[in-house]
Amino acid sequence: MTKILLIEDEESVRENILDLLEAENFETLAAANGKIGIELAVSETPDLILCDLMMPNMDGYEVLEKLNLQGVTATIPFIFLTARTAKSDLRKCMNLGADDYLTKPFTSSELLSAIMTRLEKQVTTLKYISKINKNTARLLPEFQILKNSLLKNLANKDLREFQIHYQPIIDTSSGLIVGAESLIRWQSSELGMISPAELIPLAESTGLIIPIGEWLINNVCKQTKIWQDAGYKDFYSTINISITQLIQPDFSSKLLESLAKNNLHPSSLELEITEGIIDKDLNIAINRMEELSSHGLRIAIDDYGTGNSSLIYLKLMPINTLKIDHYFIHNIDKDKQKSTITKGIIEMAHNLNLRVVAEGVESKIELDIVRAHKCDLVQGYLLSHPLQVAKFEELLLTDRQLIA
Ligand code: C2E
Ligand code: MG
Ligand code: MG
User: Fold this and answer.
1) Whose CA is nearest to atom 6 of ligand 1?
2) Residues 182 and 66 placed together within one structural domain of the fold
């Protein structure tokens, strides 16, 4: 149940709003002044706070400033209730980090609409929390909203809200599209577009990455086969695999099953594994990769250069491809060190018989530099964003030559 804290000194206003919230099935907490409000915010971590601006002793500005100073309360959506309409007051509210304000008197539907909008927008905060410890994330209300929605979606194996986009991978010598990276998208009917940066950590921590991953692998195999049969016979796709997937005991058998079912040769798939994530289950991960590699699947290390044990991986793992992280490519023309490091990685990779992909190429000059360094393959917004299947096909048919 969504918990809302109301901080309001006027009793009649407070009672009115509480009645309204309760009628809408919100759990409510009430405080008659800022001090009690802050205590309740800290001890109860509500999902949203409504706070009167003008209160004796401590006004709403001060309440918000104090909440902003504490980790647990700083990210709770905060809506001011105010009788003041001067632009300068409203600007001050927003500058302090309030999410919205309602000018009194407001109708019940205005209040409810502001609350619902804020609760939904709150899920974007996940962008920040996905980087932190999963256990902490689990406690946060916005994580719960997203998680419930994901669970609901998967309860009936209903994956209609998920889509796979494909970003062209281009060979720098021929200039042609030779493959595609598959990237998941979740168009949630409840929450809007959820990016992989939010979805993947959530799917991992809930275990839902397994059914989602299986669905994705099967679909990518099917799609790759369609493109090969359409005449692009060496076309390959890459799939991002998270460590949770990789260490499943039946990961290889299920993957091989998908390949066989779709009549696709294993070398038509490349599994992208992010460098930084492997540390924990290194041995299992290596065994799994060896097993897959022995069946002809290709393996790429993704986001290369940003993890902490880059070189030992090259020695221990059956790798075919290095994908140089976007970080090194971005502004490579203005940063001599990035250019030197990129050139060095490419030379080393070639000596180890690995192919190299430059990720996130966004400008002509970045493309020219990685080509001059003899990078084999490129991906990036300069050439194409990730595309829906129909758009990707259009590009393949009409404009496969992306580099002159
Ligand atoms: P990644 O595998 O490194 O994918 C590349 C990301 O960079 C994609 O973001 C892509 O849209 C974006 N990108 C492509 N070209 C450019 C460019 O020129 N400039 C910039 N700034 N970005 C560019 P996306 O799709 O948001 O995915 C983010 C990450 O989420 C991926 O990073 C990957 O680690 C993960 N991910 C995506 N789809 C899946 C999936 O199906 N399974 C798993 N396990 N992880 C996935
Ligand atoms: Mg990738
Ligand atoms: Mg990458």
Assistant:
1) 360
2) no
CATH number for the domain spanning 48: value is: 3.40.50.2300
CB 392 within 8 A of CB 166: yes
* Ligand showing the shortest atom-to-Cα distance for residue 360: 1
For ligand 1, atom 11, which residue shows the shortest CA distance? 386
Per-residue model confidence as pLDDT tens digits over 113-138: 888 877 766 655 544 444 444 444 44
Supply the pTM of this predicted model.
0.70
Find out whether the beta carbon of 360 lies less than 6 Å from any atom of ligand 1: yes
Range of the domain at 154: 148-397
- Co-location of 160 and 243 in the same domain: yes
| Ligand 1 atom 36, closest CA | 196
Quick one: 98 and 176 in the same domain?
Answer: no
